[in-house]
Amino acid sequence: MDSIKQGANYVAESVQQATSGAQKTANKEVAKDGNAPIGTRASAAKDALGNKVDESGHDAKAEAHKQQM
């Protein structure tokens, strides 16, 4: 029963990792866009860094759940 719970947690963290990765990529593109206002670009760059941290955290949590299965 515990392995089923860990499996579900692994899947949930993997999905969140993928979402954070997609958001990071989108924010990086906005940050690189020379036609966007500088404030928007700076905000997107900051958000991309936050997404990278989230992505790494979800990856670590997913791996921990995987190891517990």
UniProtKB/TrEMBL annotation:
Superkingdom to which the source organism belongs: Eukaryota
Alphabetized InterPro entries for the sequence: Glc-repressible_Grg1
Ranges of biased composition (kind: Basic and acidic residues): 52-69
Annotated stretches, region: Disordered: 17-69
Coiled coil segments of this chain: none
Record's protein name: Glucose repressible protein Grg1
